[in-house]
Amino acid sequence: MAEGMKVISENRRVRHDYFIEEKVEAGIVLTGTEIKSIRAGRVNLKDGYAEVLGGEIWMNAVHISPYAQGNRFNHEPLRRRKLLLHRAEIAKLASKVQKQGMTLIPLKVYLARGMAKIELGLCRGKKTYDKRQDIAERDAKREMDRSLRDKNARD
Q: Cβ contacts of residue 146 below 8 Å, gap of 6+?
């Protein structure tokens, strides 16, 4: 992990449901109470996704809990948030999403040099047999590691 970077929330379910083709770092446009909630670790990426609308990327369904000490100016937890990327990056991602049927999914939210960043993954959905194959490979690797450890313990 890079120095000055603190991971706030990670969406581990994505690796089970999707093939991650590419990763992109983006900034997030936030209000004052949202950044305070993020610093407190109150983010849920579970159902989140991003879409390209009018040459901009918007993040939807990411839950940032209301700030506990916030007052009537507190934010709405599931509001749509704008992501900050260069125009060329947006165009490249938009073409891949449109032509290749891929999806933009938030992988993790972190603080880098005091600013909230999000890592977006350009993902392609896995079929059921792909998921079963991944589980079988993981179990086989675990079994091999266990037998090697047991063999080394006996020697």
A: none
State the virtual CA torsion across 114, 37, 123, 19 in degrees, nearest 10: 90
Q: What is the pLDDT of residues 98-148, one digit of tens each?
A: 988 899 999 999 999 989 999 999 999 988 888 899 899 999 999 999 999
Domains of the chain by range and CATH? 5-125 (2.40.280.10)
pLDDT tens digits, residue range 24-69? 999 999 988 999 999 999 999 999 999 999 999 999 999 999 988 8
Give the distance, in angstroms, between the CA of residue 129 and the centroid of all CA atoms in the same chain: 24
**Which whole-number Å values give the CA distances from 133 to 6, 14, 80, 123, in the listed order?**
33, 16, 35, 18
Task: Determine contact, residues 106/61, Cβ cutoff 8 Å.
Answer: no
pLDDT, residue 78, reads 93
Please report, for the chain, how many H helices and E strands are present, in that order. 4, 9
**For the stretch 104-134, what's the b/e string if a residue is b when 16 or more beta carbons lie within 10 angstroms of its beta carbon?**
bbbbbbbbeeeebbbbbbbbeebeeeeeeee
Where is 64: in which H helix or E strand? Answer: strand 63-64
25 closest CA partner among 91, 98, 108: 108
